[in-house]
Amino acid sequence: QVQLVESGGGLVQAGNSLRLSCAASGLTFSYYAMGWFRQAPGKERERVAAITALGGGTLYADSVKDRFTISRDNAKNTVFLQMNSLNPDDTAIYYCAAGSRGEFTYWGQGTQVTVSS
């Protein structure tokens, strides 16, 4: 059974940082691309960042480029999202997902990030 468990969310003031983690089990982690998504109330889900299976490639939404960094540790089956210079528009539930062949198949339960002004 595949499980993705996010952690690290919370309430922070604008300008501060948070680091999200997502621990994966039940799959061969190094075979899967990983992504971070977010969904704010009343908005569609947005892909924030993604990283290839071996970590050689990353991509970011324009809204987070130069502020967020995605990374992974395949030895620990974990993917991270370092979020700097947070602003209230970053407030959302953040989800990690695992995928292959261009489709994200497995999803975590999400972690809430709230940024106060």
How many distinct beta strands?
A: 11
- Main beta-sheet strand count, sense and barrel state: 7 strands, mixed
Distance linking N and C termini? 40 Å
Shape: globular
Give Rg in angstroms.
13 Å
Instruction: Give the proportion of residues in helices.
Output: under 10%
Strand percentage lies at: over 45%
Secondary-structure content class: mainly beta
**Please, how many helices?**
0
- Helix-strand sequence: EEEEEEEEEEE
Mean pLDDT: 97
Low-confidence segments? none
Task: Note the topology.
Blueprint: E1 3-7, E2 10-13, E3 18-25, E4 33-39, E5 46-51, E6 58-60, E7 68-73, E8 78-83, E9 92-100, E10 103-107, E11 111-116
Parallel strand pairs: 2-11
Antiparallel strand pairs: 1-3, 3-8, 4-5, 4-9, 5-6, 7-8, 9-10, 9-11
What tags apply to this protein structure?
117 residues; mainly beta
